[in-house]
Amino acid sequence: MKSVGKTPEIKMIAQNKKAYHDFEVLEKVEAGVELLGSEVKSVRQGGISIADTYATCDHGEMFIHHMHIIPYQQKGFVVPEPYRKRKLLLHKSQIVRMAADVERKHLTIIPLKVYFDKQWVKMELGLCRGMKMYDKREKIAAEESKRRLAQIMRTRGKR
Q1: Calpha distance 64→104 (Å, rounded)
Q2: Which of 58, 107, 124 is nearest to 87 (CA)?
Q3: What CATH number does the domain containing 86 carry?
Q4: Does residue 152 form part of some domain?
Q5: Of 67, 84, 92, 136, which residue is the least packed, with the fewest Cβ within 10 Å?
Q6: What is this structure's pTM?
Q7: Is residue 148 part of a domain?
Q8: Coil, strand or helix at 12
Q9: Which residues of 42-72 are buried (b: 16+ CB within 10 A; e: fewer)?
Q10: 108-129: per-residue pLDDT in tens?
Q11: Dist CA 97 CA 102 (whole Å)
Q12: What total number of domains does the chain contain?
């Protein structure tokens, strides 16, 4: 029997905070990740890193490259390579649209988060444009001024 009003269980595993600093995220898409059983067990233990990873489209399929999954401790006969490319599970229309945007607009597909949605390993992908150094400076200056303004408003509210 289903419980009413219960939200789905989403457990965050890894985040790519550097992606928001180095790239401007234009669009976000959720994708499933095709993993082997021992890889899923290792991911459950937090043995995953998505720093310096990216996705590409090859022959109508989307793959994630350089995602590091630590080999599972109680490994069996088959031990998958930690840095192998892994298939992403997306609808065909999403793959075609994202591949076209990458080619036409010179964008990059970067993983932003990895999480469990119930028992499935999901990844939030971002269609990103690289930031120039002056863009980063403007972003930092805007955040600093916003922080400063909030600080002034707090001190005036205490009087």
Answers
A1: 20
A2: 58
A3: 2.40.280.10
A4: no
A5: 92
A6: 0.71
A7: no
A8: strand
A9: bbeeebbbbeebbbebeeeebbbeebebeeb
A10: 899 999 998 888 889 999 998 8
A11: 9
A12: 1
